[in-house]
Specification:
Order of helices and strands: HEEEHHHEHEHEHEHEEEHHHEEEHEEEH
CATH topology of the largest domain: Aspartate Aminotransferase, domain 2
Distance between the termini: 35 Å
Number of helices: 13
CATH class of the largest domain: Alpha Beta
Number of strands: 16
Structural class: alpha/beta
Number of domains: 2
CATH architecture of the largest domain: 3-Layer(aba) Sandwich
Shape: globular
Largest sheet: 7 strands, mixed
Radius of gyration: 22 Å
Helix content: 25-40%
Strand content: 15-25%
Mean pLDDT: 96
Length: 453
């Protein structure tokens, strides 16, 4: 039986009415991938206010790795609601905050002593990681990467690469931030080919110390193990080892931003584990809360202790309900078979996507790790001209036919998969069938240069 049920046109009348209210009451800034207003969600399924049922391949932009309304998370939150909601850890501390910190300290890579501070969001965690690195090194500068996304608050937005819509009109930005190329092999900044490139992009960090900022002024290098909003770009295996060694050589704090890649998304608890690197600081959020807002910075104890008493804090950081949800989510990820399911999802997607790539030149590259996977769409495989309009059309086709997807990439030409791990095999394949139909509908009406010969 099909999980998808479409009962009205999309968007339906109730969604359209709510969108009219939204446009009157909410500024234009918040963007929507779909015009669909949700009524309820369960596992990997979402129902809108018009009674249409969709398969969810977006997972709240990676916040629902455990699935919507996961039973263990709901039970933990309900239990917490019977005790207290908000106390503020800075006033009267409570055990669940400490328990989340202990879990993250144990799970983060590295056999050294670690500590964790808990905040509300990924952007807040990113900003705190930079504060901690600056306090520890007594240095001001930060190096980040092309195509990176680290958030929308001032410092996080300054670290973010993409200009429009994230930075346009919001200048001036934070000083002492410098940017170097990421290992985006499909669009190499040096027009080289891996592996004969000898990882020029990684060694560019040393060059940056000569051209951009001296090494002894750099507090931190912050990097996503796989680019998130930048298009799920997956670096070669040696990339982070080179970056990490250069940081160690110059006393620079290496920060892994695992807001989107962490909590099992790639088939390991943290994506940086795929690369055998032990970051000094590790940033988490999104699925850490199993659907509730929470973020954290975990790292070497001596670095985490650099800020003075009162130097770190957040009124709602480590909210008791969010901490209870996080403990349940971590338990599910550790012992619920979800890491294995993430890997299986990635294998199923790749097998299907390889067929699409052979059939349609529109599919330029397939990439990712585990359940964090994507396809980059191009109008011409030789020039790799981004197929941004076509990508938008595919996303539109998908939601009209019962599949929620989201796009990504600096050039707006990547379809990414962030499906909840609660999805069944039948639901996954039903969703991939819709995606395949969307690709076919767009590719086969495109110009001859893009069509399947």
């Amino acid at each position: 039986m099909s999980s998808i049920q479409i009962r009205t046109e999309i968007p339906g009348p109730r969604s359209r009415a709510l969108m009219a209210r939204r446009e009157a009451a909410v500024p234009r800034g918040p963007y929507h991938s779909t015009p669909i207003f949700a009524a309820k969600a369960e596992g990997a399924l979402l129902e809108d206010v018009d009674g249409n049922r969709f398969i969810d391949f977006a997972g709240g932009i990676g916040c629902a790795n455990m699935g919507h309304r996961s039973a263990p998370v709901l039970a933990a939150v309900r239990e917490q609601l019977e005790k207290y909601l908000h106390l503020c850890f800075s006033v009267t501390p409570y055990e669940s905050y400490v328990a989340v910190a202990e879990k993250l300290n144990a799970l983060a890579p590295g056999k050294f002593a670690k500590k964790t501070v808990i905040v509300n969001t990924g952007a807040e965690a990113v900003e705190n990681s930079i504060k901690i690195a600056r306090a520890y090194t007594k240095r001001p500068a930060v190096i980040c990467f092309n195509d990176a996304f680290h958030g929308r608050t001032l410092l996080a937005m300054s670290l973010t690469s993409k200009t429009n819509p994230y930075k346009a009109g919001f200048a001036p930005f934070v000083n002492d931030i410098y940017r170097i190329p990421y290992a985006y092999c499909y669009r190499c900044s040096y027009n080289l080919t891996y592996p004969s490139c000898k990882m020029t992009c990684a060694h560019a960090l040393e060059d940056a110390f000569k051209r951009l900022v001296p090494a002894d002024a750099v507090a931190a290098v912050i990097v996503e193990p796989i680019l998130g909003e930048g298009g799920f770009v997956t670096p070669p295996p040696e990339f982070f080892g080179i970056i990490h060694d250069i940081c160690r050589k110059h006393g620079i704090v290496f920060i892994a931003d695992e807001v989107q890649t962490g909590i099992g998304r790639t088939g390991k608890f943290f994506a940086i584990e795929h690369y055998g690197v032990e970051p000094d600081l590790l940033v988490t959020a999104k699925s850490l809360g199993g659907g509730l807002p929470i973020g954290a910075v975990t790292g070497r104890a001596e670095i985490m202790d650099a800020p003075g008493v009162g130097g770190l804090g957040s009124t709602f950081g480590g909210n008791p309900a969010s901490c209870a949800a996080a403990l349940a989510a971590i338990e599910m990820m550790e012992h619920g078979g979800m890491l294995q399911h993430s890997t299986a999802i990635g294998k199923t997607f790749e097998a299907r996507a390889r067929v699409w790539q052979k059939k349609w030149p529109l599919v330029g590259e397939i990439r990712g790790l585990g359940g964090m996977c994507a396809i980059e769409l191009v109008r011409n495989r030789e020039t790799r001209e981004p197929a941004d309009t076509e990508t938008k059309e595919i996303a539109h086709y998908c939601y009209e036919h019962g599949l929620i997807t989201i796009t990504a990439g600096t050039y707006n030409n990547v379809v990414r998969i962030l499906v909840p791990f609660a999805i069944t095999d039948d639901q996954l394949n039903e969703g991939l069938d819709i995606m395949e139909a969307a690709l076919g509908a767009v590719a086969e009406r495109a110009p001859a240069a893009m069509s399947h010969a």
